[in-house]
Design goal:
2 copies of one chain form a homodimer.
Chain A (H helix, E strand, L loop, with lengths): L5 E6 L3 H21 L3 E7 L13 E3 L2 H5 L6 E4 L6 H11 L3 E4 L2 H17 L4 E2 L10 H8 L5 E7 L2 H13 L3 H10 L8 H5 L1 H15 L9 E2 L7 H9 L2 E12 L2 E12 L11 E8 L3 E8 L3 H19 L29 E11 L4 H11 L4 E6 L8 E8 L2 E2 H12 L4 E10 L6
Parallel strand pairs in A: 1-2, 1-4, 2-3, 4-5, 5-6, 8-10, 10-17
Antiparallel strand pairs in A: 7-9, 7-11, 9-10, 11-12, 13-15, 13-16, 13-17, 14-15
Amino acid sequence: MTGSDLRVGLCGLGTVGSGVVQLFNSHSGLIRQRCGAGLQLTHVGARRDNPGCDLTQYRVSRDIFDVVRDPEVDVVVELIGGTSVARELVEEALEQGKHVVTANKALIAEHGNALAAQAEAKGLALRFEAAVAGGIPVIKTLRESLAANAVSGIVGIINGTGNFILTEMASAGRPFADVLAEAQALGYAEADPTFDVDGTDAAHKLVILASLAFGVPLDTRGPFTEGIDRVHPEDLEFARELGFCIKHLGIARRRVDALDLRVHPALVPAARQIARVDGVLNAVMIEADAVGEIVLTGPGAGSLPTASAVCADLVDLGRVLSAAASDPVPILGIATAALTPQPIVPAEDVTCAWYLRLVVSDRPGVMAEITRLLGDSGISIESLIQRPPVANSSHVTVVMLTDVVTGGQIQSAVSNIEALPALQGEVTCLRVESFEGA
Amino acid sequence: MTGSDLRVGLCGLGTVGSGVVQLFNSHSGLIRQRCGAGLQLTHVGARRDNPGCDLTQYRVSRDIFDVVRDPEVDVVVELIGGTSVARELVEEALEQGKHVVTANKALIAEHGNALAAQAEAKGLALRFEAAVAGGIPVIKTLRESLAANAVSGIVGIINGTGNFILTEMASAGRPFADVLAEAQALGYAEADPTFDVDGTDAAHKLVILASLAFGVPLDTRGPFTEGIDRVHPEDLEFARELGFCIKHLGIARRRVDALDLRVHPALVPAARQIARVDGVLNAVMIEADAVGEIVLTGPGAGSLPTASAVCADLVDLGRVLSAAASDPVPILGIATAALTPQPIVPAEDVTCAWYLRLVVSDRPGVMAEITRLLGDSGISIESLIQRPPVANSSHVTVVMLTDVVTGGQIQSAVSNIEALPALQGEVTCLRVESFEGA
């Protein structure tokens, strides 16, 4: 298609799809000017209309596969979400010789290796800037701007819903379930918020970032993943008292011959820039050997911010495909054949300081037993808060920060502590993120 | 050169040049892998050796113009700085049919229109990611990631030396000259720090950002520019008391049919993310209609961070020129012929709240006179701090925050106030940045 307009077919008219239509409707002149060559939206496929979308300028199909098979479409934008039909759609698009742009992190994380290889074999583009951190250009930064850097680590707040919930819990002291219901009412959380809450969504994004940063194949089995549902309002309070905020982090670090990949709530020093990223904002901190540390902050979701990233991919393709037969930027940062798997450090071997909260009988000797059990596992206590028992209660809450130890040490100490008759319920264990590389 | 390696000739072995050599020496495998096609440094030109640089693998010339005329160089990297020889060098490189990458903000800001037009006419690349905010990918973000956005404003800390000086002054209460001397000793400030201190360096960068954001030609006459030398330690103290930090900001905003372009120290609400960007860090906040607000933070200068940006441009070119005859990304975001000048809002018409600090005789009626003169210019006082006179002094320091008024109103009120016999010295006037768009 060198020399002529790049014709875009859009599949899906949900939150992001309608944003893309809105940008094409309002900014077609701007896009054409910046693209050099033309970029036109020609065909929109969606099972039903979106009343907020003016589609009068475009061919509209109820069957999204009509878009994929339209000979007047050069690039297919997949915005239907999910991984079954979306995968078929993208495979079929590539089969038909069409470039693909998607915002679908689950699709890329789960099937990206095969899709990238398919696209590469056919000399087709597969772009997914919108799949991670919405409007923040983190994919481009890793794939292009840091191309001469060895990345050592990424720490990110990459799920806006989860960050909104933790921020609200921290500022208002409200319990998790309450805030989740509000997030759903506000449209931040999906009707089924499981993936936002249990960390799956953040893990998908982390898998994508890790592949670009470290040259490993996409592998959703990689990250250790923990959700935010275990965080109680009192943990947020205790954390603040100790000088921390609690954030749901995605962490990817290069170790000697292995990668440390984790998604979990963590205590973050309150003075850290990332600790102050609140609400639905996302932030990604990248540590790399040449550049040092850069932090990108912005809206990680939402109709227009995500559509902005989708359209950035389209403008990139419009520009490059007007001059070249194929997209010269490797889909996963390097050729898929050069991607090299690396072992993942097991969670029990990862070291960090820990926050432990436990409720115990208010009687002499209990604390001595607990510290002895911690000591038996080689764990020292760095700080300790003990609250006086509330009226009529025979129990006290104790919060401890440990020194830096392995997950295995904590596991064994905690299972011993939980066996004590003096203990009420389970021990809440949260990791402390120390930003070692920075 | 489609299909073969892109051969790089480097001119200048100072701070940035030696960083580029270091990255080529240490990361050639990584760069080759990410580039797809090869990218090799072949020829280095510098008046003298840099003992920290291993040049054994490269042809070395004492005359940088030998690099430009070397038929085995496809892209010339200009890192000599300045605007006279650098301009000749870049013109000659383009004349010789070579692509150009530069980190030279003064060159791009002052001569970028002609150079971009020359490069464009010959189908050559002219890239300058490293010219603004060092290792932070702000040029790429504006030119590529936000291509489907109408940018409404940019607020940035884009001079690391100035930010280091203000941060040190604020944290240690030390006077400007002291901290400047330290910055020079640490190698942050140039031997001649004039451009860092008087705002010229930040203005050059702002001119480049404004061109990319708003599609205007580069024009160094545009920005109103004020340096940091007028900021006294006590201003930093008063600002803190009022809930602000003082930062040296570059501000570019789109107004109705005009642009507001300014570089000056400003009071920034302490809770703002940009207020917490300290030391030699840079930060650029971009407000755009689709994405909302994104903030990029990182090292704005230094050998390897800046070299990281230079090499990112080279990898981009290596990738694209392996597949295309020319760089399809417009040098200034859109074709140079489409750049459209816009009038600049005169400083006296720009509205903001103001911080005024004045020293007056400690006698009845003086404050009444001052508030009357402010009132005569239509200015209200929002907050006021008056310090008790220090022992043996007959003068008191008064600090005021005004409501939002024009620069002209402040000018006329201040010149009236300065005519009062009760006034000692001049009135210190600093703008307050309210981040209206955000």
